Amino acid sequence: MTRNYKIAVIKGDGIGPEIIDEAVKVLDALSANMGFNLEYEELLMGGSALDVTGVPLPDETIQGVKKADAVLFGAIGGPKWDNVERHLRPESGLLAIRKEMGTFANLRPAIVYDELVNASTLKADVVKGVDIMVVRELTGGIYFGQPRELLEDSAYNTMVYTREEVERIAHVAFEIAMKRDKRICSVDKANVLEVSQFWRETVIEVAKEYPEVELTHMYVDNAAMQLIREPKQFDVILTGNIFGDILSDAASMLSGSIGLLPSASTGKGVGLYEPIHGSAPDIAGQGIANPLATISSASMMLRYALGESDAADKIDDAIKKALAKGYRTGDLAAYDAEEVLSCSQMGDIIAKFVSK
Ligand code: NAD
After folding, report:
1. Which one of 66, 147, 216, 336 has the fewest CB atoms closer than 10 angstroms to its CB?
2. Is the pTM value of this prediction over 0.85?
3. 317 noted as active-site residue
C-alpha cells in the first residue's frame, strides 16, 4: 500500500525557491519508485510573506506546518528587508516558527566527502574522513532569554537555560551518539558563565544514563580552535544555541562549501529540514546556487521524520556518485570540476541517479 505524507514546503527568499524546486524534483523522482506519495502544501515565511501579508510568519503558515508530517524549508532574508522593524524582520519569522513548532534540537552534520577533500581550505589529511554531528540547542539561551532591550546608550540580552531545556537536548545528543561512535564533546564557557556551569553539571547528570558514551567537555574558544586544528577528534558536539550557531558554521567550512550541508530541527512534534546556509542574495535569481544542502535536508527529512531510510540512502548515494563523477556547481567549480552545472542541472543529475 502506498504510504502518504504531507509535506509543508516553505521556499522563502533569495535562492530559497531555486534550491527547494530541486529538492522537490528529487523527492518526486524517488517517491515514484519507493512506494510512498508526497503531498505538498506551499506556505509563506520571511520577506516574501511580509510583502504579501504584512508579517513574516502568517497564521496560515503556523497552522499549515502543524498539519504536516514534516517541513521542508529553503532560506529567508535579504537586503530588501534589512531596515524593517525588528519584529517584522524575516529572521524573526524563523525564530518564531522554531519556537512555535517546539523544535529545540538542531542537528547539523559536517561531513567531508572524499571527492571534495581538496575543496576545503584546510589540508586534505586534516579533513579526510571528518564526520561530525553538531547537536545545537535551538529554542533557548541568549537568542530567547528575557529580559532583553536596546536602549539609547546600552543594550542587553540574557542567557538563560533551565534544567528541562538542557536535559532534553542532552538526551537527543546521547541517543545520536549511541548510533555513532559513542563520543560526545559538550561545549560551554563554564570557566566564565554560571549558565554554562549549570549546563555542564546537568549534562554530566544525563550522561549517567548512557554509560557506554564517553563524555568530554571543552570551552567554546578551545572548541573553535580544535575544529580547525584536528576536526577528526570529534564525533558528536553538544552545545547551546549561540555557541552552536557559530561552531556549526565553522564546522561546515571543513567540507568546502556551505552549499553542501543540511540540517534538521526536531523536537516533540513536526520537524523542520533546511540547508544550513542563508538566502544568498548575492547569487539569487542566477540559477547558480548549489542545491545539494537542500537535497540532503530532504534526505534527513525522509530518514528522521518519515522513517523512509532506504529512500534517504538513495539520495545520499546519489550525491556521492554525482560528486565522484566530477559534477560541480559554481561554488565547488575550482576543484576538479569535469563540468560546472547550474542549480537545476545538479537537481536533474541527482533526480536521474535516485530514479535508477
Ligand atoms: P548566506 O549563507 O546566505 O551566504 C553566505 C555566502 O555563501 C554567500 O556568498 C552566498 O552566495 C554563499 N552561499 C550560500 N548558500 C549557497 C549555495 N547553496 N550555493 C552557493 N553559494 C552559497 O549568508 P549571509 O550572506 O550572511 O546571509 C544572507 C541572508 O540570509 C541574510 O538576510 C541572513 O539573515 C539570511 N540567513 C538566513 C538563514 C536561514 O534562512 N536559515 C540562515 C543564515 C542567514
Report:
1. 147
2. yes
3. no
